[in-house]
Design goal:
Helix content: 10-25%
Strand content: 15-25%
Number of helices: 8
Largest sheet: 8 strands, mixed
CATH topology of one domain: Rossmann fold
Number of strands: 12
CATH architecture of one domain: 3-Layer(aba) Sandwich
Amino acid sequence: MPILEVENLSISFNQYTSSFKQNNIQVISSLNVSLEEGEILAVVGASGSGKSLLAHAILGILPDNATISGTIYYNGEVLTASKQASLRGKEVAFIPQSTNYLDPLMRVGNQVRTSVKTGDATAAQRAVFKRLHLQPTVENMYPFQLSGGMARRTLLSTAIVSDAKVIIADEPTPGLDPVVMKEALNNFREFADNGCAVMLITHDIESALTIADKIAVFYAGTTVEVAPVEDFTGDGEALRHPYSKALWRALPQNDFIPIPGSQPHPSALPTGCLFAPRCKEAILECGKKQPEMRNLRNGMVRCIHAT
């Protein structure tokens, strides 16, 4: 049984137009994803595809103008708002994309120590700082004194010492030098190997492939494919969805072939398959309704053409 499971998640936001009328914009629709203990699931996709919103929905930190439907399960139980609050920062640790999550009025060493649940908090904080190549003097600094890379390593340190069962990392590696990035990724792999479940949200498919077990591909606010990491190889012939294949072939180390067109804005989503306007395989049926997510070849896909 997955420790974390998201079923048919949809999120919309009420926004005011220039004429003071409310407009409801759906940014995530029928999104499905699951996470097992001892597993790293990398979530990839273009900016605006819903990756960070998924993390915020799981943690229960979406803004007040958000409307949510669908179900999120934790250990087989529905994840209610009160349950989210009790798990957040304890059993479920979050490494946010923005370093603004650090408390500007608190020294960073003390911030990391507050996440230590057992044992000597100071020793744990100093050990993880050493591991991530943060000098001893950093623990006495305030966030405004840190470089971007140092701030990200501080956020990563908070998750490492937390003993959480689930770690959700939203773009944790930008700004890190190659040595520290490799160490951070190895930490995620170590967490998973010790039974923790890790959701790694990233644009860096190449780095994700070095540690992940599965890759979930997002497009325009929904999951289009979930595939074992082994399927991301060669020309992408083992992948199931046309977007996944195009995304793979667009990488510089592959064919470097750009995908024509652009991801639709949430206010102008096409009917039917969201990728159909850019898909070479699209037929009339693709424009009628969004395909259901289905199991296929030890993975999942949302496409009527996938075989």
